[in-house]
Amino acid sequence: NTPVRDRLRIAIQKSGRLAEPARALLASCGLSWRESRDRLFCYGESLPIDLLLVRDDDIPGLIADGVCDLGIVGRNVLEEQGSERASLDRAPAFREYRALGFGGCRLDIAVPDGWDWQGPQQLDGKRIATSYPALLSRWLKAQNVDAQVVLLSGSVEIAPRLGQAEAICDLVSSGATLSANQLKPVTTLLQSEAVLAGPADALDATRGELADLLQRRLDGALRIRH
Ligand code: PRP
Ligand code: ZN
Ligand code: MG
């Protein structure tokens, strides 16, 4: 039994690529906060909209559990966890509300520079290292490719040099990490960027109105930017 909240709570990344741009975007919507001493909670001053600073991977679950009402998170994280839920036959609990126009990147398959890439069939019987097992498995199935998914939570790009895998599936932004590891991108599974996420079901009246107000301000702020 979650007590009724009359304030809106938004989860954002505590540190990492989306952390500063997410706060800046919300500030440009007229939000201001008073920070707690541990800097994990920011109490909304201009509006009853609070921030929770968390690991990005925790954001979909926090929305699913109703601990937070909205989140700013990479589409890659949202799609991976959504796809994992779907593969377990669990009902959708969160969804993308809108793209936010920053933090753009791709989820790509990359192979050693020396490979003469012929297409997905070349991955048959190979090992592919990734932090995105659900999205990769779904893609392999759609391509009818039988490959082994090797789960790593980070530094995926060194897996081929360590002999753990022949190829990888990871996020590519500038491409610098791939080239530093003598890998080249060959195909894209997902175009990603920061998105506003929320529950699949509607919020209650008070928080729903705050969420609508925020989205109208986001419309305005994003229109000025582009
Ligand atoms: C991301 C991603 C790649 C890298 C790609 O990692 O996993 O490793 O950035 O960026 P680039 O194409 O500009 O080189 P990040 O630095 O966010 O760290 P993480 O993998 O530990 O999350
Ligand atoms: Zn992360
Ligand atoms: Mg990385």
Describe what this molecule looks like in 3D.
- This protein is of the alpha/beta class and 226 residues long.
- It has two domains: 8-103 and 193-225, D-Maltodextrin-Binding Protein, domain 2 (3-Layer(aba) Sandwich), CATH 3.40.190.10; 105-192, D-Maltodextrin-Binding Protein, domain 2 (3-Layer(aba) Sandwich), CATH 3.40.190.
- Helix content is 29%, strand content 30%.
- The protein has helices at 19-28, 59-64, 75-87, 133-143, 176-180, 205-225; strands at residues 8-13, 33-35, 41-44, 49-54, 70-74, 94-99, 105-112, 127-130, 148-151, 167-172, 183-192, 194-199.
- It has a seven-stranded mixed beta sheet with strand order 2-3-4-1-5-12-6, sandwiched between helices.
- Helix 3 (75-87) packs across helix 4 (133-143).
- The model has no long low-confidence stretch (mean pLDDT 95).
- Zinc ion binds next to loops.
- One of its GO terms (molecular function) is ATP phosphoribosyltransferase activity.
- Residues 55-216 form the ATP phosphoribosyltransferase catalytic domain.
- Pathway: Amino-acid biosynthesis; L-histidine biosynthesis; L-histidine from 5-phospho-alpha-D-ribose 1-diphosphate: step 1/9.
- It is found in: Cytoplasm.
Essential attributes:
alpha/beta, 2 domains, 29% helix, D-Maltodextrin-Binding Protein, domain 2, binds magnesium ion, 226 residues, 12 strands, 6 helices, five-stranded mixed beta sheet, binds zinc ion, seven-stranded mixed beta sheet, binds 1-O-pyrophosphono-5-O-phosphono-alpha-D-ribofuranose
